[in-house]
Write a structure and sequence with these properties.
alpha+beta; Non-ribosomal peptide synthetase module
Length: 195
């Protein structure tokens, strides 16, 4: 596994309602990371996170009506501080781009509302889509509402009923054998569709 060199949060954005600011501060639960909260003019906040090695990051939250808006771009090297910031970013539904820098390649993670929507790997002269979130709900709803299989099952049952009626009234052994083969085929199809 490649060793991560750094992580960059590029054009990252967090929107917190007023009542979530205290939850945000409580969410910082790492004994090796200190945090300071500064209250600025107009009720804005600046939260400074500092790890045991002295690396620090400042999260400026501008107060806009009943929201705290944090727009930031920074680079982190320490894995513990990076993990904490990423956890906060996910828990409080951040949007933006996160660049994970490794020797020889870069991974771009595109976040929307705290979830990764796309991951792209960049190497010298090439890019590769690693992951892309697709909304499968419409497809699942279509399949759920689709009655094609139920219609086919009903058609098979009608054919089976007709074949059974023909078999009951038939006296020819060769014809009965042919009907039995058709019944076997239809019952196998019915079994597969109902499963």
């Amino acid at each position: 596994m490649a060793q991560r060199l750094a992580t960059e949060f590029v054009k990252a954005r967090l929107l917190l309602p007023e009542n979530q600011m205290s939850k945000f501060i409580e969410h910082i639960k790492d004994p090796l990371i200190r945090h300071r909260v500064r209250v600025l003019d107009g009720g804005s906040r600046e939260i400074v996170l500092e790890d045991e090695n002295g690396e620090e990051v400042s999260l400026p939250f501008d107060r806009r009506r009943h929201l705290f808006v944090c727009e930031l771009s920074f680079r982190l090297v320490n894995p513990r501080l990076t993990h904490l910031v990423r956890r906060l970013f996910v828990a409080f539904k951040g949007d933006g781009l996160v660049r994970r820098i490794y020797p020889g390649f870069v991974m771009l993670d595109f976040y929307t509302e705290g979830s990764v929507r796309r991951i792209i790997e960049l190497t010298k002269g090439a890019s590769r889509l690693v992951f892309e979130h697709r909304d499968q709900l419409p497809e699942l709803e279509y399949r759920f509402l689709s009655t094609d299989i139920e219609k086919e099952i009903e058609e098979i049952r009608l054919r089976v009923d007709r074949l059974l009626d023909r078999r009951r009234s038939c006296a020819d052994a060769a014809e009965i054998g042919r009907i039995d083969r058709l019944l076997r085929t239809e019952s196998e199809r019915l079994f597969r569709l109902e499963a």
